[in-house]
Amino acid sequence: MKALSIATLLLCSSAAMAHYTLDYPPTRGLNEDNEPIAPCGGFATVGQRSQFPLSKGFVTINSGHVKAEIKINVAYGNNPSEADFTAAASTPASSSSVNHPGSSCLPLDLSSFKGAADNTNATIQIVYNGGDSPLYQCADVILVNSAPSFDQSKCVNDDGKTPSTTNPGANPSNTPSAGAVLSVKNAFTAAAAMAMAAALAF
Ligand SMILES: *[C@@H]1O[C@H](CO)[C@@H](O)[C@H](O)[C@H]1NC(C)=O
């Protein structure tokens, strides 16, 4: 009886979580009920733009499914139409899969992606397929060579590994794995925390 109720609980919570969030760059908007609505999860109006670097960018999502396929499309312009997103989807900027729930940092290097140039307004569309219907999220950005406000610390992988990603825009020879960057950062943070604890002890 107890086992049954726990199983029921797990089922219910996984159903409630079977969507995903776009955690970075900032989403145009999230309404879980409307996530299946293309092209931007029910948000038709362009939101606040954030800077997105042309090289070594990434997108961080939080997945409710254990497994999901993710395609990332880039539509250019100040207010891309549904047709613009449809056209962009014929050449995704990235295709990847995640094999664990929670946070995944998906590399998105646009430095050699068609149409991507410095100071270009664009909308990044994330199409997430966890086995039911595709779910949509968008981020309105300005693509720039130098993006000081792009927060590298938002690249988070809950399994500690970088998801398998095919990124036609990326140059594999000069793209360090996000995991490597992350572990260096974690080591640094740990060292800083120890130094602080030592300082406090006196
Ligand atoms: C890009 O979008 C912003 C508003 O989000 C707008 O102010 C700016 O003029 C646009 N840039 C171009 C080149 O149209």
Tell me what the CATH architecture is: Distorted Sandwich
Largest beta-sheet characterization: 6 strands, mixed
Q: What is the alpha-carbon Rg in Å? A: 19 Å
Tell me the CATH topology.
Answer: Coagulation Factor XIII, Chain A, domain 1
What does this structure look like?
The chain is an alpha+beta fold and 202 residues long. It has one domain: Coagulation Factor XIII, Chain A, domain 1. 23% of the residues lie in helices and 30% in strands. The protein is built from three helices and nine strands; from the N terminus they run H-E-E-E-E-H-E-E-E-E-E-H. It has helices at 2-16, 82-88, 178-201, and strands at residues 20-24, 50-53, 57-63, 68-76, 94-98, 102-108, 120-129, 135-144, 164-166. It has a six-stranded mixed β-sheet with strand order 2-8-7-4-5-9, with helices on one face. A three-stranded antiparallel β-sheet has the order 1-3-6, with no helix packed on it. The longest helix is centred in the last third of the chain and has 24 residues, at 178-201. It is globular. The structure holds 2-acetamido-2-deoxy-beta-D-glucopyranose (NAG). 2-acetamido-2-deoxy-beta-D-glucopyranose binds at residues 49, 78, 121. Residues 17-159 form the Copper acquisition factor BIM1-like domain. InterPro entries: BIM1-like, BIM1-like_dom. It holds the Pfam family BIM1-like_dom.
